Amino acid sequence: xxxxxxxxxTLSPTVVEGSEWVFEEKYDxxxxxxxxxxGRVRIWSRTLQDLTxxxxxxxxxxxxxxxxxxxxxxxxxxxxxxxVSRFQLLQRRGTAGGSPTRYxxxxxxxxxxxxxxxxxxxxxxxxxETLISGRTPPVxxxxxxxxxxxxxxxxxxxxxxxxxxxxxxxxxYQPGVRSPFWRKVKVRKESEFVIGGYTLPKGGRQHLxxxxxxxxxxxxxxxxxxxxxxxxxxxxxVLASKxxxxxxxxxxxxxxxxxxxxxWVRPKLVAQLVYAEWTADGKLRQPAFLGLRTDKDxxxxxxxxxxx
Length: 308
Hints:
Number of strands: 19
CATH superfamily of the largest domain: DNA ligase/mRNA capping enzyme
Distance between the termini: 39 Å
CATH topology of the largest domain: D-amino Acid Aminotransferase, Chain A, domain 1
Number of helices: 5
Oligomer: single chain
């Protein structure tokens, strides 16, 4: 089975307008492509990390989708009681009271061994709707909104979604490309940051106090703040174990932040954070930890492409 990297959306500060655009929910989960070849299913991330073993119920659902070879693109998600995807719920899958993982499918790239990637989105979506029609969870088709972008954004904000994706319905599927044919507009301020260190715990907290995070500004890792909320005891323990193996003597940030109680680590881990806004001096205001992103490479977390 040939693995492809998924098509990526370009971040847009405003909602696009025009009759060619359709609007879908932006899910807050793990991007995943699923392929079936000669009855065997594989699932992989945007960085080609194999996810098959971690989601057996999704594998079984993809096995049951029609006949022949196929390739679909979507997002692995966990939904809250209101049906809104939350990355932190996905992090807790398999624990007591955790939300079940579902697969929100939004594109059909291959069917019966025939590539559909050169076909316009309208055709691919119609074929996908036929394929998914009548199916029950964990697989479902991505939610579409009205064709008015501003109204779609208001509805996403009202429902508490992460954002919306605008897609040009005339466009082909471009694997591995961050394409202007897809535009993402965020409602919630969430993004990924590189972990470059941590502070010591205080009071009754164990393992660590706050994570020190940054974004790459060219070749340099630029310090953008520390996050000390959003952790559970379990996540603190997991983070401490992972960070202990990455310890180093010198700060990875350039310039290094002026702090005496920091433990520095090699910048190998990516954290997803939610935050209120950016301050005037380029620091995060009121950040909170949501989880680790094993599907993102630190080099993808850049100052130039930060979400403002």
